[in-house]
């Protein structure tokens, strides 16, 4: 009894790698190995590239908006119409400034996901599930090992990025104190330069962290979808079908094929026999095939049934032991006879046609 329980326990252990079908099913549900750090790193990288390329354009537009605000808007009388106009014009200018960054951020988001998991569209995660609002399940997720690992990772990332950011600010602290004595254009240029240095440093750190995080996410995902030996057996049964049901289906298919074959025997030109053990029904129809073909064959009991049906439908039976055996072994039902049998079969068909004319 104890031995059986031990075997059941080990059979239920998740020790086997997930099968391709299991991975495909998990993917359809939207469960894939993905690192958010890769997304963040690529998003920041693309955004900085855009800022580096369009930096002068963004600076010129910001200065133009600054000058326009303090030379034009400041003198306007505030009412409903002017407020709406100011809001509209400022919104358009801001959209011009940050638009390229927003656009590239969207592209970077798609690119990072495609790079990690390929194209995936599923509505499975959006389906309503009571387990998602179950407080017990929620508590388990909050205090799970994965949640603790994610918390420690977040703290470590904050510490690393915070240290890098603070170090760069500390490097430029003297220049920052002198910004108050610079004009707006020089101040914007300085802060743009500092932001670029901070961004590049943060990206390098995030890229390194992303490599380790992606490896961990893949490992954790593969671990979570592991299967037991029993799971693999059940999956195989579901794919291949229960052996008992499969055997019944095959038996049913054989019966249907047999009935179809027997229904064709009355259309045969001749049945070549062994005389008792083998029977092969031959038909020649120029519109169907270029040579005679087999429409039915059988051995022992089936051969007897073929001869019986042939006799009942006045189909001639010819005994030729070697030919019957050879045709049975070489030709499947519906196939044209091979060339080596042409002469022997032609002689039999000629004999049959002569006998039918005499009758």
Automatic annotation (TrEMBL):
GO terms for cellular component: plasma membrane. It comes from the Bacteria. It is a multi-pass membrane protein. The gene is flhB. It is found in: Cell membrane. It comes from Ornithinibacillus bavariensis. SUPFAM superfamilies: EscU C-terminal domain-like. Signal peptide: none annotated. This is Flagellar biosynthetic protein FlhB. Pfam families: Bac_export_2 (PF01312). The chain crosses the membrane at residues 38-58, 97-122, 143-170, 190-216.
